[in-house]
Amino acid sequence: MELDVSLDYYDKILAAIAVSLSGGALAGTITNLRLRVGLLAGALVATTFVYHAMFRNPPRPTPSPQAKAAAIVWHAFIGILLVSAFL
User: Fold this and answer.
1) Is 1 within a domain?
2) Fewest CB within a 10 Å sphere: which of 3, 32, 51, 57?
3) C-alpha distances in angstroms, 60 versus 10, 25, 43, 56?
4) What is the rounded CA–CA span in Å between residue 63 and residue 8?
């Protein structure tokens, strides 16, 4: 029986955050660094992963046909309002 584990992009991001925070805590525990400094270093590394996942590659749902139609109707309405305001 083979275990098939496929991780999504955001699963990898969550794992990277956990590893960086754990690594910082471990570094603060087993080295001469203070625990707070190790956690700070891990948090700074984790922040880069959070930034990338939230702002560089945010999750976007696939739009439904109804959502596309609503967007088209809304933009047409705004266009009509703008044209009527300037006439």
Assistant:
1) no
2) 3
3) 12, 33, 26, 12
4) 20
Tens-digit pLDDT profile for residues 30-80: 999 898 999 999 999 999 999 999 888 888 877 788 888 888 898 898 888
Please tell me the distance from the alpha carbon of residue 11 to that of residue 15, in angstroms, as a whole number: 6
Residues 6+ apart with CB under 8 A from 63: 71
Longest dimension (CA), the chain: 74
Judge whether 37 lies within some domain: yes
Looking up tokens 């584990």, which residue turns up? 5
Two structure tokens written together for 12: 């990898």
38, 25 Cβ separation under 8 angstroms: yes
When divided into structural domains, the chain yields a total of: 1
Domain enclosing residue 19, as ranges? 9-86
Buried b (16+ CB within 10 A) or exposed e, 23-42: ebbebbeeeeeeeeebbebb
